[in-house]
From TrEMBL:
SUPFAM superfamilies: Macro domain-like (SSF52949), Zn-dependent exopeptidases (SSF53187). It comes from the Bacteria. It comes from Sedimentitalea xiamensis. It holds the Pfam family Peptidase_M17_N_1. The lineage of its organism: Bacteria, Pseudomonadati, Pseudomonadota, Alphaproteobacteria, Rhodobacterales. Keywords: Aminopeptidase, Hydrolase, Manganese, Protease. Belongs to the peptidase M17 family. PROSITE patterns: CYTOSOL_AP. This is Leucyl aminopeptidase family protein.
Amino acid sequence: MPYTFAEDTSDAIPLHVIESPAVEDWLGTQDERVAGWVRQNGFAGNLGQALLVPGADGRAAMALAGYGTRAKRARVHFALAHAAARLPEATYRISSGLPEEDTATECLGWLLSAYQFDRYKTRTARQRHLVAPEGLDAARIEIIAEAEVLIRDLVNTPTSDMGPADLAEAAETLARTHGADFRTVVGDDLLEQNFPLIHTVGRASATPPRLIDLSWGTSGPKLTLVGKGVCFDTGGLDIKPSKSMALMKKDMGGAATVLGLAQMIMKLDLPVRLRVLIPAVENAISGNAFRPGDILASRKGLTIENNNTDAEGRLVLADALALADEDSPDLIVSMATLTGAARIAVGSDIAPFYTDEDADAQALAAAAAKVDDPVWRLPFHEAYETKIEPAIADLDNAPSGGFAGSITAALFLRRFAGKSRYMHFDIYAWQSANAPARPKGGVGMGARALLDALPDLLKL
């Protein structure tokens, strides 16, 4: 399904976006017939209300979309999509009432309101087409919408069809589409090319582990995106209970997110040298699975005491980050569905991130607020460095005590990013309940904020 704007035609229905405090003033500009119809149908401009107003010939002359109040809109994503979900199939053209500063985000929400994951189920989506408002960079919004759909589809696909090989195929298709260079290191070749942690975590699976490496662009600052590609996580020998395993197809949400962001960057032809690194594995159980208490080697040369086989994401990311640092990029960004501690700290809707650079944090926070992609900075708290330093190895992948789990994981990863400028996101990548433009299932987190912040982060 294309996530695109409609052509402006004469039969597009004018849509008036009206805040609840402005309804009476708007009605004062209308004739008695329209005002009477609106009042009779109880339209009060509340968030999510929608109403068709017929003309003298009985056909729709206009449509109204309730926009609530700013305080109410702050409690939802894509406020206009809440009204769009209640409008009948037709083509609409926004005529008034949508604040200019909200237009891009609300139009993106409108396009995404058509999203359904229908790979395994026959469905007919309701089509509420929208004409792009004048002055909107419609092409950019369409590119962002298509990338968000890619993220959602990748996360929603079960591991039977989205294992390490399938994830590599999706990345290769993206590379081929945009003329990017692509390579993979698979199975025992990981050992030969010094990616021991990726091999260790993935070796028990029937599908061999691999490192996905995509490169695009010939000029500009170097941006390297590293995404956790754990396509399913049993927890390994420290096995998860079945309830905790139910959503583990989404443990490659970091990989999906960096691929979506990469698609945005390439389709927008941003002036950067982009690299995407994804360690793609399944954390399975068999006779050769890695064990609690094992001492593991890493690409960087640091040894790791493995105190929990369910803390595998930071292990595979460690080798990929070490490789990223060897190229001396201007910025490394890692995205990972890494810790339950992050969800306890900020819930499922916010992407916590880490950076040592105050200016980068400020730029990202401003971009996130602008595009309605919420993030929150957590600290690389130096005092917790001792928690990741065990007695018999250089590092501990699962410190005891249970406190500050997201922070200690971020500190662990920072050791492998070396001296490179580094930003890490601990995302959830999942929408827990149905909402307009955000149905239950996979969802992008942090990618749109990063895209908007890139001009500041990389001085583009």
